[in-house]
Amino acid sequence: MMTFTDQLATELADIESAGLTKRERLLTSAQGPHITTSQGPALNFCANNYLGLANHPEIIQAAHDGLDHAGFGAASVRFICGTHEEHRNLEKEIAEYVGTEDAILFPSCFDANGALFEVLLTADDAVISDSLNHASIIDGVRLSKAKRFRYANRDMAQLEEALKDAQGSRRILIITDGVFSMDGYFAPLEEICDLAEKYGAAVAVDDSHATGFIGPKGAGTHARAGVADRVDILTGTLGKALGGASGGYVAGPQEVIDLLKQRGRPYLFSNAVAPSLVAGARVALRLAKEGDDLREQLTKNADHFRSRMAHDGFDLLPGSHPIIAVMFPGEDGALLASKIADDMLKLGVYVTAFSFPVVPRGEARIRVQLSAAHTEADIDACVDAFVASRDRIQAEDSK
Ligand SMILES: *Cc1c(COP(=O)(O)O)cnc(C)c1O
C-alpha cells in the first residue's frame, strides 16, 4: 500500500509532468521596479506594486513608528482585546476613501471575501457571480448556503437570465471583480447596476486590482464608471497598490459592517492586523489619495508599453489597465510563452507566463504589470527583451 506521503509524491509528479509546477524565485532585495533575485538583478514587471509604494520611505517610517508606539502585534483577535485605535482610524479612512459608511479590516482580502457571503446570505438568498471572479470569491460563495448562479465573464445577457432565475429569493447579491486580473478588463459596472436595480439585487465589487489607482483619486472602479453611489459593497486589499503589505477590507453600509463584526468568521477567529502594518497602510492610503501624479505616471507608463509592444508586433489584449496581457495563442502558445519569460529573466527582465488552467486553453499569455515607479528606460528595456527573446526563440524553434 502507498503511504500518505507516497500518494502526495505521485500528485506532485503529475503536476510536474503536466508542466504546471510553480517555482518560486527568491528575492534578496526589497520589492520594487529593480529587484535582486537569487539569479541576479532584474527589472520587475510582475508585482502588484502599481503606485510604487511597496518600498516608500514615508510608509516604512510610519510602520517603524507604529512598532515603537503600538508594539509588534495585538496578540488577540479584534473583539477580545485586539482593537487598537489605529484599526478604527484606518477603517474610517478606507470607508471615506471608497465612499461608504464604514469598513471592516480583515487579515487579507481573501479573508474578507471568505466572510462576506456566509454572513450576508442564507439558504433563502441568492448570489450571482462572474465566472472569472477571484478564487477567494469562489471559496467565499461556497461557504454560504445561498443559491448560486454564475454568468460568463462580463456577459450581461447571462447575468440578466440569472437575475430572472433568482427572483423569489429574499436577497440577491451580484458579486464581480472590478478588474479581472488575467486580462486587465474592467467589469461593466454601469450595466451591472442597471440590471441590479431592474431586478432588485445588491451589487458587491472586489476592487483589489483597482483601489488606489483607478478612477478619480484612485477611489476605484465604481468611481471610474460613475456608479459610486450605486455599488453597495466593496472589498479590497492592502497587499497591492496600497503599500503591498497585508490586510483586506469590506466597505459598505453600516449594517453590513456591523453584522460582519458580529459574525464574520475570519474576523472573529483570526488575529488582528499588526499595528505596524496598519500605521503603514494609513500613510499608503493618504499617498494614494494625494497621488494624482503617481496615477498620471502609471497611465503614461501603461500607454508607452502598450504602444511600443503593438508597434513591435505583439498581440495584446486591448484596454488601459496597467495589467497588460501579451498573448501567445494556439496550441504551442503555452510553451512559447514560458520559454520567452524564462529567456527574458536571463536578460534581466522578470515577467510571468500563464497557461491552462489559470487561463483558458489556447490563451496562454505573459502578464505584464506596470508601476508608476518604472522609468521610460525600464519600459524600453522590457520591450527590447520581449523582442530579443521572441526573435531568438522563434528562430531556434524554426530550425
Ligand atoms: C489579490 C486579490 C485578492 C486577495 O487579496 P489578499 O489581501 O492578498 O488576500 C482578493 N481578490 C482579488 C480580486 C485579488 O486580486
UniProtKB/TrEMBL annotation:
Its cofactor is pyridoxal 5'-phosphate. Residues 43-385 form the Aminotransferase class I/classII large domain. Catalyzes the cleavage of 2-amino-3-ketobutyrate to glycine and acetyl-CoA. Keywords: Acyltransferase, Pyridoxal phosphate, Transferase. It is an enzyme of class 2 (transferase). Its EC number is 2.3.1.29. It comes from the Bacteria. HAMAP family: 2am3keto_CoA_ligase. Pyridoxal 5'-phosphate binds at residues 109-110, 181, 206-209, 237-240, 270-271. Homodimer. The gene is kbl. The modification N6-(pyridoxal phosphate)lysine is found at residue 240. Binds 1 pyridoxal phosphate per subunit. Pfam families: Aminotran_1_2 (PF00155). Substrate binds at residues 134, 367. It catalyses: glycine + acetyl-CoA = (2S)-2-amino-3-oxobutanoate + CoA; 6-carboxyhexanoyl-[ACP] + L-alanine + H(+) = (8S)-8-amino-7-oxononanoate + holo-[ACP] + CO2. One of its GO terms (cellular component) is cytosol. This is 2-amino-3-ketobutyrate coenzyme A ligase. GO terms for biological process: L-threonine catabolic process to glycine. GO terms for molecular function: 8-amino-7-oxononanoate synthase activity; glycine C-acetyltransferase activity; pyridoxal phosphate binding. The keyword DNA repair does not apply. It comes from Flaviflexus ciconiae.
